[in-house]
Amino acid sequence: MERRNFIKNLGVGAAGLAACLSSRVAPAFAKNKPINWKMVTTWPPHFPVLGESADMIAKWVKEMSDGRLNITVYGGGELVPALGVFDAVTQGTVEMGHSASYYWAGKVPAAQFFAAVPFGFNAQSMNSWILNGGGMELWEEVYAPFNLKPLLAGNTGVQMGGWFNKEIKTMADFKGLKMRIPGLGGKVLKKAGGNAILVAGGEIYTNLDRGVIDATEWVGPYHDLKMGFYKAAKYYYYPGWHEPGTAFELTVNTKAWEKLPKDLQAIVDAASYKSNMWVISEFEAKNNDALQELITKHHVQLKQFPDEVLKNLKKLSKEVLDEVAEADPMSRKVYDSFLKFRDNIYAWNKVTEELYQQFKHY
Ligand code: CA
Q: How remote is the CA of residue 269 from the centroid of ligand 1, in Å?
């Protein structure tokens, strides 16, 4: 790989030099020399939607920069482990990472707020808070000690509650349940008496099929269908109380970012914005067809968590968030910003989205 890149660089460099010499114009050589970056991801190579969107970011950046910035994308485990993305970008082993910030809760508790908060923001509110409501400034502050610049790169929309092999009728059904569920939702499950297990996407199906875990959540019907979970579990619960609009992150090593010319920085920023819109649009456009296929073709039993269960999970979520904020000053700061923005956006939603939901059908 290294050798191939080297030869490629040499080729482009030589061609560029020849072009400059022939036109007798002073070459802006340093500016035009292609920059080669590596992006590691938490997803299997070319994984539907998530891996695809990482591939597309690289493609868009290449197109927009006319080949001046070339990003090679690596699936989880190809260059570093799926959950080794944060460390690899922090250490500068690679320039970029594509993941979700709640995977780093163990290292940086405050990071979780920028992925998903149980009973928290949907995609629209998450975008508003992070991009235009002060969230991004805080996220940059949270990541600065780790040499990381964060960018938003996608959102799943409201997720599904997950795949279970037994029905969830009361809170007692969570007792002893071994479930793959990341982030703050995992902490809520623990409070409910279950065991939250963090497993990267590529290993979930095998764990569920072999009974290493009793249940799993993943994303939503379009992606879950591709993951084949219906072959290993029969109940598909909604709603995804734990992930009402999970954001994906693109991280850039700050030293690499600072070295990048301003126009290329703007191109990376534009590609992340485009991806942020593409991912949510892709999921929302395809989820319902996939859900119908799961029900009619694969005989999955669609179930809603009982109201009483959701009420209790919400109560436990509040306790978890208070505890996270109590234990870590940066989490307190981020949570306060989240709460302030929530009051603001919910007041607006009351006279817009909420009312509209009641009257939207003809
Ligand atoms: Ca999920």
A: 25
150 lies in some domain: yes
SS3 content of the chain, % helix, strand, coil (to 5): 55, 15, 30
Please say if the pLDDT value at position 247 is more than 80: yes
pTM above 0.85, yes or no: yes
Angstrom distance (rounded) from CA 58 to CA 72:
7
The count of C-alpha atoms lying within 13 angstroms of the C-alpha of 185, restricted to the half-sphere facing its C-beta, is: 30
Looking at the 3D structure of the chain, how many domains does it have?
1
CATH code of the domain covering residue 84: 3.40.190.170
Residue 149 lies in a domain: yes
In a domain, 16, yes or no: no
Q: Which residues constitute the domain of residue 69?
A: 34-157+245-284
CA of 160 to the centre of ligand 1 (A): 8
In angstroms, what is the span from residue 180 Cα to ligand 1's centroid? Answer: 9
CA of 256 to the centre of ligand 1 (A): 30
Amino acid at 335: Y
Q: 46 with 102: CB under 8 angstroms? A: no
Domain-embedded: residue 229: no
Cα dihedral 74/76/80/82 (nearest 10): 150
pLDDT tens for 86-129 read 999 999 999 999 999 999 999 999 999 999 999 999 999 999 99
**Ligand 1 center from residue 78 Cα (angstroms):** 23
pLDDT tens, position by position, 49-69: 999 999 999 999 999 999 999
Phi-psi region of 100 (alpha: psi -120 to 50; beta: other; left: phi over 0): beta
Mean pLDDT of 208-236: 96
Confidence grade of residue 31 (pLDDT, cut at 50, 70, 90): low
